[in-house]
Amino acid sequence: MKVGVLALQGDFAEHLSFLRRLGAEGVEVRLPSHLDDVDALIIPGGESTTIGKLALAFELLKPLRTFGQTRPIWGTCAGAIFLSTDTLERQHLLGLMDITVERNAFGRQADSFEADIHVAALDDAKTPFPAIFIRAPLIARVGPNVDIVAHLPNNKDNGIIIAAKQGHFLATSFHPELTGDDRFHRYFLSLMKT
Ligand code: GLN
């Protein structure tokens, strides 16, 4: 299994080392031709406006959209923003996943935090997942074909949507690649087999 990691900006190196640990072959994607023999793609966290501008400059927007027609893509944090159809701001997006994302919804860098969340879709679901939020977005709207994968509990309602799945697309507003827990990466790899 060959998994590409979009390596334009952000914490792609952490994803690559996670993939190595799981025995998958991770490859850096910087040019359209790098997508040719890749089975799935991870878009890392970083700065979604920068990732969008670089994707435009390297003529990757259309090839990435075409890639997504048939192959799984997972976006973490800025990657989830880039994957979405709408952010209520003007920026380059892939527009593949029918979600509206609110950027920087939990405050500034200094307001970064970690929370234990429950994710029924993961192996050993009773064990909480340590979710790391760094200037994270929240998922404000999910389209009719989107499944909610995880909430962050709040006191008001059912909680804030922080992970979602639409067919072979996965979006997480937090950073599994910065934890020691490989269950989200394993979950994504399992989407390659469906
Ligand atoms: N705040 C960033 C953005 O809007 C995302 C931060 C992250 O990826 N950790 O793109």
Give the helix/strand layout.
Elements (H helix, E strand, L loop, with lengths): L1 E5 L5 H10 L3 E5 L10 E4 L4 H10 L3 H10 L2 E4 L1 H6 E3 L10 E6 L10 E5 L11 E5 L4 E5 L4 E6 L7 E7 L2 E4 L10 H9 L3
Parallel strand pairs: 1-2, 1-3, 3-4, 4-12, 5-6
Antiparallel strand pairs: 6-9, 7-8, 10-11, 11-12
The site of glutamine (GLN) has 11 residues, from helix 4.
Describe this entry's structure for a reader:
Helices cover 23% and strands 30% of the residues. The chain is built from five helices and twelve strands. It has a seven-stranded mixed β-sheet with strand order 2-1-3-4-12-11-10. A three-stranded mixed β-sheet has the order 5-6-9. By secondary structure, the chain is α/β, with parallel strands linked by helices. It is globular. The chain has one domain (2-191): Rossmann fold. A hairpin with a 7-residue loop joins strand 10 and strand 11. Glutamine is lined by residues 45-48, 77-78, 81, 103-104, 134-135.
